[in-house]
Amino acid sequence: MKHRLPVPLLAALLLAGCATGKTPLEYAAAPAPRPATTTAAPNPARPEPDELLVRAAAAPMEPFPGEDWNLLFDGKGLGVWRVTDFAGHGEVKVEAGLLVLGMGGPFTGVNLTNPPATMNYEIAFDAMRVAGSDFFCGLTIPVGTNHCSLIVGGWGGGVVGISSLDGYDASENETTKFLDFERGRWYRFRLRVTDKKIEAWMDAQKVINVSTEERRISVRFGDIEQSLPMGLACYSTTAAFRGLRWRAVSGPASEK
Questions:
Q1: Which terminal Cβ of the chain has fewer Cβ within 10 Å, N or C?
Q2: CATH no. for residue 199?
């Protein structure tokens, strides 16, 4: 059904049309003015990476429990670490006592050419996801004459596990865990390698407890092999580390 303009309004429009040359329909169909475009204000609840790093450096570090720890990173320079030659790697820097691995395309990392031990040892450190959504800690370690990686926050952000056991990655073997990680929060990790087991803790939670007897231990095929024999890496993510250290141990923390 067609809508008709009221007679008084139509008459007024006809008179206006005579003066302007426009028809009544042209007046009736005039478009509404477009709203002015605005730029979204920054979200104060989601700080930028630089701000997170400032906060991270200012956060006090709790003492590492136990004795006989040896530093692997003193917070002043790379020291014994060298930048891993990943294609498209991000910037690696030491800033305010932190080891910062900038977001790469996709890998950024550092590694040791002479690991302090290959068996019966522990490594401990704090790690943080600063930006990105994939793994912020890929710790590649020797297990005797073999190697594997502890992956934290992989496969879209939440997978924790060992890559690889019998050819199965961290996302598909019995070590697989799905955990939530907050951007800008420190997490403490401790990994223990002995001749029978690999064990790992995140904060106070034991997240890896796997027997390595009669298992095929390897790293995932591809770029991560450049982290051998020991290295730290992140994937499409900016990560920060502090407190890196190691110590010798005599056996697994638990028999079960």
A1: N
A2: 2.60.120.560
H/E stretch holding 242 reads: strand 237-248
Cα 156 to Cα 96, 102, 136, 197, 201, distances in angstroms: 29, 18, 11, 27, 21
Helix (H) or strand (E) holding 15: helix 7-20
Q: Is residue 181 included in any domain, yes or no? A: yes
Short-list 172, 173, 160, 171, CA closest to 215: 173
Owner of token pair 């990790």: 189
Lookup: tokens for 100: 């910062």
pLDDT in 10s for each residue of the chain, 256 residues: 444 545 454 444 444 444 445 444 443 444 454 444 444 455 556 789 999 999 999 999 999 999 999 999 999 999 999 999 999 999 999 999 999 999 999 999 999 989 999 999 999 999 999 999 999 999 999 999 999 999 999 998 999 999 999 999 999 999 999 999 999 999 999 999 999 999 999 999 999 999 999 999 999 999 999 999 999 999 999 999 999 999 999 999 988 8
Domain count, the chain: 1
Model-level pTM? 0.81
Residue 172 domain flag: yes
Any idea what the Cα angle at residue 202 is, between residues 122 and 73, rounded to 5°? 50
3-state DSSP call for residue 172? coil
Q: Could you give the 3-state DSSP secondary structure of residue 57?
A: helix
Query: For 148-192, what is each residue's pLDDT tens digit?
Result: 999 999 998 999 999 999 999 999 999 999 999 999 999 999 999
Residue span of the structural domain in which 212 resides: 67-248
20 vs 216: CA distance, rounded Å:
88
Residues in the chain: 256
